[in-house]
Predict the structure.
Amino acid sequence: MSEPVIPVTPATPATPDTFPPAFLWGAATSAYQIEGAVREGGRTPSIWDTFSHTPGKTAGGDTGDIAVDHYHRFRDDVAMMAELGLTAYRFSVSWSRVQPTGRGPAVQVGLDFYRRLVDELLAHGIKPAVTLYHWDLPQELEDAGGWPERDTAYRFAEYAQIVGEALGDRVEQWITLNEPWCSAFLGYGSGVHAPGRTEPAATLRAAHHLNLAHGLGTTALRSVMPARNSVALSLNSSAVRPVSQDPADLAAARKIDDLANGVFHGPILHGAYPRSLFDATASLTDWSYVQDGDLAVIKQPLDALGLNYYTPTLVGAADPAASGPRADGHGSSEHSPWPAADDVAFHQTPGERTEMGWTIDPTGLHELIMRYTREAPGLPLYITENGAAYDDKPDADGRVHDPERIAYLHGHLSAVRRAIADGADVRGYYLWSLMDNFEWAYGYGKRFGAVYVDYATLERTPKSSALWYGQVARSGALPPAVEEVA
């Protein structure tokens, strides 16, 4: 029997130059972004199949029909991970590949794909981390109302139990939901993500039912898995900063912090929504869908918490004379993802930017790690996503040099190491992403991968950042300077 991914005792502290010896060095992906094979093995459409096939919803009309064909190439991809030196791999399960209608018995051929993937990872000494939900709700459940409907949370619990029974004997690290903020606020608020609805009140209903799904799913997983297994969720919590110390700007920051962070970590970590969130959204909803007992179900003890981080958020009070949509870094839309926040203005943070237009600021990652160290003392943390998109291209020799990404990773890993030195119990880091892939509404136009993918041939080429990251993983230490690896 293998040792648990999450040790019972705290990880060995890092030295000033190294990470803890048991620190996990991983990369992350999601099913719809890499698998392809959308019509094989009984798989039915998810909301992202429907959304991406709707004209005008994705850049260039791109879809995940083929993606990078990981479904057929997973063995080669796992061998590549091992060659790079990764010790962990976080992937998601396609709900509609396992349970095509979101209800009823599993399709075993769908589960068999993930069984084979897990076996391949373990054979190469790579610890699998399974994310149950990374935004690809079965379309039939959306047709029945989607996440704004309470029943979807119960369907998720049934799905969690199915996957837990199939893989729980070999997978020890589990994540219920990835970035529920995006599922609720971008899917049902701004509409820039699937299912593309723009209903502010439904956004908040969806957030609550995602929280409920996490609680029910956690209970379902624990009912069928060994006690040694770890159950977590991944939040894309925002490092929200006021543009000034003016009371109006501080109030704006508090409102966005509630909508970005408190709406999830309030009930999940503390068993209560922020009262200020209820007050701010009273014009949209009375929150009567929060039923007796829900908060106790949601506040299941976590074994770990995943944090996804890319860039900080800078806000202030809006100019009453201003009108129209306010950019906030979550894609262009005439609809705001922030319900009841028309009095808030989003400001561009200073500094260098990635191809997404996101400011590079590792201090935000350190800030979040230390915040959750205070919010949930004793709870192990993982950085389950962190990375950057750049306009990567092969050179004349076919090599892909991406020194900007190496600098980005060096800065953010330095922030993680500094947080560990400051007392945070961070146990692993998952680079987003293993390889270039379908980047949601941006199609194939944004490359986050450490591995370059030629979309015409699907050939994989590790970028210089992948070689650099592998060297860091093998040594467990950051080099003092940012240098490419030959």
User: Anything to note?
Assistant: The first strand starts at residue 24 and ends at 28.
